[in-house]
Amino acid sequence: MQKQIEKVLEDSEVVSSWNKVKDKKLSELLMFEFKADIRDGSELRIKEIWQGDERLRYGYFWIKGGRVLMGWNNSPHHPKLITYPFHAHRGGKVIEWGEVDVQGVIKCIAEGSIC
């Protein structure tokens, strides 16, 4: 879980530095957050909630200049989407998007596009 994210961040050529912002265990839940600085001056905010080996929730937000360039999450608040609960945020709009992980997000950032 956390170690996998740490490895992806360490191995990425687009990440200049990163730190763990939060690491909390509540009963059977493990919640953690990371902030990764990207070489182009943007940042990636990573949040995940796990129960055992199952990732229950995630949120990845790529931010530059205080503006969200792209965000991915599985919060269940857009039930009309075909990909529900998985979706993305781009340009102030919610769009259909399949399940994603940190490695996929880093790949998108490395390609230098808003996916």
What does this protein look like?
By secondary structure, the chain is α+β, with helices and mostly antiparallel strands. 17% of the residues lie in helices and 50% in strands. It has two helices and seven strands. It has helices spanning 2-11, 102-110; strands at 15-26, 29-38, 43-51, 54-64, 67-73, 87-90, 93-96. The longest helix is centred in the first third of the chain and has 10 residues, at 2-11. The chain is globular and about 35 Å long. The mean pLDDT is 94.
Itemize the secondary structure elements and their pairings.
Blueprint: H1 2-11, E1 15-26, E2 29-38, E3 43-51, E4 54-64, E5 67-73, E6 87-90, E7 93-96, H2 102-110
Antiparallel strand pairs: 1-2, 2-3, 3-4, 4-5, 5-6, 6-7
Evaluate the radius of gyration.
Answer: 14 Å
Overall shape? globular
The oligomeric status of these chains comes to single chain
Strand order, biggest sheet? 1-2-3-4-5-6-7
Order of helices and strands: HEEEEEEEH
Model regions low in confidence, pLDDT < 50 over at least 5 residues: none
Class by SSE composition: alpha+beta
Based on DSSP secondary structure assignment, what is the total number of beta strands? 7
The major pleated sheet works out as: 7 strands, antiparallel
Helix share, percent: 10-25%
SS strand fraction: over 45%
Q: How confident overall, as mean pLDDT?
A: 94
**Termini separation (Å)?**
25 Å
- Give the count of helical stretches: 2
Name some characteristics of this structure.
single chain; 115 residues; alpha+beta; seven-stranded antiparallel beta sheet; 2 helices; 7 strands
